[in-house]
Amino acid sequence: MPVSRDDVIAWIKAIAAMIAENSSYLTQLDSDIGDADHGANMDRGFKAVINKMPEINDKDIGTIFKTVGMTLLSTVGGAGGPLYGTWFLQAGMKTAGKMELGLADWAEALEASMKGIIMRGKAEPGDKTMVDALLPAVNALQQALQQNQPMHVALELSADAAKKGMESTIPLVARKGRASYLGERSAGHQDPGATSSYLMLKVAAETWKNSI
Predict the structure, then answer these.
(1) Alpha carbon 107 to chain centroid, angstroms
(2) Which helix (H) or strand (E) element contains residue 87?
(3) Quick one: pLDDT at residue 173?
(4) Label partner for 194 (CA 20 to 30 A): which of 42, 77, 102, 116?
């Protein structure tokens, strides 16, 4: 079964709860190699998103994603606003008018999000950014689609791939963002953006598994 609009809304609410719960953890990761504000910024952004939800509960998925993206753009500080705003804006463009998402729809939306983030942040795989979590996640989705895997399996595979990508950032030397200023000292630390990206995909797999 496909993911419904209500499932998408449930995912966004679950992201907000997850970010609130992990705000200190994400900020601690960011304090090691960044501005020590990633968790706080994301929490502020998704609290603003939750305040917007009553206005868009009856809209199509594309409109919901676009509203989330615009809200994050305007409320999340630093690089997070443009990057996570781009995630949802690109997903919104791919899902315009849709009231439900099949696996192919979700794979296409996440790929568009990743490509938008790469273009916005000028990051490549191995730069120690959220791209290192998103690229494996997209690849896993596309492989699952080719293998005709059930959607709940594909989502789990995607989240697992994102986790491995997140963990792969630990030994890397950052080449983008504030962390790049540290040079070799950035090695040995997990990237906070890759971490929040993984957590969002993990929440998608957990939220949607019982409805598809």
Answers:
(1) 13
(2) helix 80-94
(3) 60
(4) 102
Tokens of 16: 């907000």
Q: Identify the pLDDT of residue 163.
A: 98
Q: What is the CATH number of domain 3-208?
A: 1.25.40.340
Helix-, strand-, coil-residue percentages of the chain, each rounded to 5: 75, 0, 25
Structure confidence at residue 33 (pLDDT)? 62
Q: Kind of pairing, strands 3-4 and 100-101?
A: antiparallel
Structural domain boundaries in the chain: 3-208
Q: Which two tokens stand for residue 165?
A: 């990508």
Counting as low any pLDDT under 70, the low residues of the chain are: 32-34, 172-186, 188, 212
Identity of the amino acid at 100 = E
Count how many Cα atoms sit within 13 Å of the Cα of residue 61 in the half-sphere of its side chain.
22
What is the residue whose two structure tokens read 């494996």? 136
CB burial of residue 63 (10 Å; 0-12, 13-18, 19+): middle
Q: Is this structure's pTM higher than 0.90?
A: yes
Distance CA 86, CA 74 (A): 12
